[in-house]
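To: structure subgroup
Subject: Chain for Friday's discussion

All,

I'm putting the inputs and outputs inline so they're searchable in the archive.
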Amino acid sequence: MTIGEMLAATVPMARTLHLEFQETSPERAVVSLPDQGDFHNHVGGPHAGAMFTLGESASGAIVLAAFGDQLSRAVPLAVRAEIAYKKLAMGAVTATATLGRPAAEVVAELDAGKRPEFPVTIEIRRADGAVTGEMQVVWTLRPNQQD
């Protein structure tokens, strides 16, 4: 099962919006939101909430790609997020996420008994390439409780 298939199966909102996981690697994740009238805003483009979910989903995809091998000992959780809407988005939009810290550095903190935090940066673009949104989601790897 791919990361995109796993997210679509386990995250109802990703399924609801029909998000398309085009690329998921530890280096970047690319996720698209098709143009769907049910998720338009008052000017006919994708609703801000749908674009937020698109960006957060792209960030989650890269987190799973980069840290999937750590899931037996830690749970990835979004800590906080910020989004800036830069230009009017119309039609389909695509989010590209990149890690803001080297994965090895994050894992080293986890190995040292810490609860690491790390940013994921996301650009949301419309089909003509214009950046319509910029987003950052800060994630943590919360160590599993030891019994």
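Points worth raising on Friday:
The first strand starts at residue 20 and ends at 24.
Residues 108 and 114 are 9 Å apart (CA to CA).

D.
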